[in-house]
């Protein structure tokens, strides 16, 4: 019988330790519904603040500036009671297309910031956004494989309106005003429905997975119960 080399013995010991660690590893504790909702709200406001600060330095056209001024005048007129609710809504809808058309660069910058915040940052920060970090929860794969950039991108597109915002930019560039407004409204309704369905699934299903979790095979768990040394990978 061939005698084992020192290398083989070390390898056997490593395999043995791995098996022992698997047995000792405590099961992951699912994040509470309230933790996930609060993390979502915190992230929404943090991202809004970051976006506002960065967009301040993005140049806008003179036409866009005038449209914003007109929008503010309509708001003032409504608050003073000189414009009815119906007139106020109709005027804002008319301005929506023109503003979207003139602020495509701002919209692109906003999407880039969203991707950096919801995809790149958690990819290299243990599956956590700032909101999830504050709530002490994190995203992980259900099968304990490495969380990938692609997983987080797909989650963000479904759950954080990234896909809807990308489609909206394409629509405003190629569609007429009426068609853009109707299509954009439909997209927003679909996005709200996706969020509502995901909330219901998280609150009432056994695995507490939203649509975005189901698609990407991810789950949100209490951070302290998960190995912290897993780095994000660039592929699935």
Automatic annotation (TrEMBL):
Localization (cell): Cell membrane
Pfam families: RDD
Annotated TM spans: 37-58, 104-124, 157-174, 186-204
Transmembrane among keywords: yes
Domain RDD stretches: 32-216
Presence of the UniProt keyword Lyase in the record: no
Keywords, ordered alphabetically: Cell membrane, Membrane, Transmembrane, Transmembrane helix
GO cellular component, one term: plasma membrane
InterPro entries reported for this sequence: Pra-immunoreactive (IPR051791), RDD (IPR010432)
Bilayer topology term: Multi-pass membrane protein
Protein name in the entry: RDD family protein
């Amino acid at each position: 019988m061939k005698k084992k080399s020192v290398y083989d013995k070390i390898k056997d010991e490593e395999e043995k330790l791995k098996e022992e660690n698997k047995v000792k590893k405590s099961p992951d504790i699912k994040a509470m519904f309230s933790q996930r909702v609060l993390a979502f709200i915190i992230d929404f406001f943090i991202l809004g603040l970051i976006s506002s600060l960065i967009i301040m330095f993005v140049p806008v056209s003179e036409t866009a500036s005038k449209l914003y001024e007109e929008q503010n005048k309509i708001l003032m007129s409504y608050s003073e009671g000189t414009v009815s609710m119906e007139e106020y809504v109709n005027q804002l809808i008319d301005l929506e297309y023109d503003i979207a058309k003139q602020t495509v660069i701002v919209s692109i910058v906003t999407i880039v910031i969203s991707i950096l915040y919801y995809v790149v940052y958690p990819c290299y920060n243990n599956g956590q956004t700032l909101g999830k970090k504050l709530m002490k929860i994190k995203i992980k794969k259900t099968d304990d494989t490495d969380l990938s950039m692609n997983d987080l991108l797909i989650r963000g597109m479904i759950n954080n309106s990234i896909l809807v915002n990308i489609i909206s930019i394409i629509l405003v560039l190629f569609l007429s005003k009426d068609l853009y407004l109707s299509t954009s409204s439909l997209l927003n309704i679909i996005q709200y429905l996706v969020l509502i369905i995901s909330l219901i699934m998280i609150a009432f299903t056994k695995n507490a997975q939203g649509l975005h979790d189901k698609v990407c095979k991810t789950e949100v768990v209490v951070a302290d119960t998960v190995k912290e040394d897993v780095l994000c990978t660039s592929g699935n």
